[in-house]
Amino acid sequence: MPLHGTEFLVLIVLAFIILGPKQLPEYAAKLARFIVRLRRMANDAKVQLKEQMGPEYDDLDWRQYDPRQYDPRRIVKQALMEPLEDAFSIDDKPAKGAAAVGAAAAAAGAVAASGAAADPSGAALAGTPWDREAT
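Above: the chain's sequence. Below: its structure in token form.
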């Protein structure tokens, strides 16, 4: 939010009224020293970041971190358009072998512990898992 000329003049008049003519130069000098220190800290942080990141610092697109660039509608649209990374697929066939049997038994035990239905062979039935504590 930029500070316009009239707003700046109102702030100066207010400061003059509140602080008085004797204290105003003192507080103006304190404000100037604070601004100089703040700029120095920001510049030191920038130099330190540049040293720590090395050549990767130049490759960064700093505009993407500008809070004015964030548009919630665009962020939601991008999130909805991204392809889902399937952790599992419904069409997956169980692997054969002893390791697969042990993994299937462990999965069936986890499914049974979560409250989902399992058939007598220990395999989980298709459907929505049921969480008794959540309902």
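Residues 97-101, 110-118 have pLDDT under 50 and may be disordered.
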